[in-house]
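wait is this the right file?? whatever heres the structure
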């Protein structure tokens, strides 16, 4: 749903109070078997998450890890988060995937996961996901999701991907994971679909404001975060999108596409990079709008996402721009291109 009737109020709740977003449209797979971690290690670009630990009575804690999944040519099949909530031979790895990447990932896993050692199961219907966003998020989740077993201040200082779970597993508890996909304080909450629906109602009764995908997109672009299917696709190399520092572990063992990634790091370069642009007081450009060189009509880039930003008071965009250009033009207007 793009909005719940009042986007301005939803944005205000997310930045000044408490808003909740339905994120269940994303895909969720569980990979189980005799050696799921070892099998995924050759597919995922990042570090496989470690088993959780007991951080307080009845409270598990761990760190989810962010990854790309690549072709042999280093181009993206998807990105995803991997979560391990117990011993891997019992709990398996939960993969949280953008909707645009689900089909490609399932096809990849069917091809490269040997069933003797690991099997992927789609649990998107059984497990749901919401995002809780705003200055009141940590306090509310401490109280309503984690039974005050962790202080709000301890949640706010968690790094992205760190999570807490009250209960033995996701069938009996809610997992609260720190997110930086948007710029206000934000947490992903995963759990059994029915339990999560009840938790949504509990949050609304407690004063949370339901918010739609339009506001989420605005907060995401304000934060400069790309999303697969919009700012990244099957033609994208992770380094072009700027996600390589988060998604790629250069010290791990081999993974599909590693040779290309290492070659770019050590001896090469990419011809374009995703940039965060301040476009000024202009009509919001469509995805795919062309960017030209300042001194010619040569096309040197294109917009992937653009929003009217209440935070910055102008239109913001994510765009791919050819390397070496410090300015571009959009419909005749000069736009500065940040170099980092």
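ok assuming it is, sequence goes like this
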């Amino acid at each position: 749903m793009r909005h719940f009737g009042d986007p301005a109020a939803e944005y205000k709740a997310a930045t000044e109070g408490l808003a909740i977003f339905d994120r269940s449209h994303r895909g969720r797979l569980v990979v189980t078997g005799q050696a799921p971690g070892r099998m995924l290690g050759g597919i995922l670009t990042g570090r496989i998450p470690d088993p959780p630990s007991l951080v307080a009575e009845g409270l598990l804690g761990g760190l989810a890890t962010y990854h790309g999944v690549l072709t042999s040519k280093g181009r993206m099949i998807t990105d995803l988060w991997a979560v391990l909530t117990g011993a891997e031979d019992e709990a398996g790895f939960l993969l949280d995937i953008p909707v645009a990447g689900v089909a490609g990932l399932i096809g990849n896993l069917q091809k490269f996961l040997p069933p003797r050692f690991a099997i992927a199961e789609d649990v998107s219907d059984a497990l749901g996901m919401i995002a809780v966003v705003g200055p009141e998020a940590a306090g509310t989740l401490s109280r309503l999701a984690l039974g005050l077993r962790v202080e709000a201040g301890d949640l706010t200082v968690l790094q992205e991907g760190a999570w807490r779970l009250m209960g033995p597993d996701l069938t009996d508890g809610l997992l609260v994971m720190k997110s930086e996909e948007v710029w206000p304080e934000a947490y992903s909450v995963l759990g059994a679909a029915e339990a999560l629906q009840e938790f949504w109602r509990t949050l609304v009764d407690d004063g949370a404001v339901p918010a739609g995908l339009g506001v989420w997109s605005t907060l995401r672009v304000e934060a400069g975060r790309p999303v697969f299917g919009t700012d990244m696709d099957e033609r994208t190399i992770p380094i072009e999108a700027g996600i390589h520092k988060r998604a790629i572990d250069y010290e791990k063992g081999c993974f599909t596409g590693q040779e290309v990634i290492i070659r770019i790091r050590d001896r090469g370069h990419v011809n374009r990079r995703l940039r965060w642009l301040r476009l000024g007081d202009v009509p919001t450009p469509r995805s795919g709008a062309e960017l030209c060189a300042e001194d010619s009509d040569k096309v040197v880039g294109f917009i992937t996402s653009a929003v009217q930003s209440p935070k910055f008071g102008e239109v913001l965009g994510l765009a791919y721009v050819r390397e070496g250009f410090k300015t571009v033009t959009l419909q005749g207007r000069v736009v500065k291109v940040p170099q980092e």
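The chain has a mean pLDDT of 96. so i think its the right one actually
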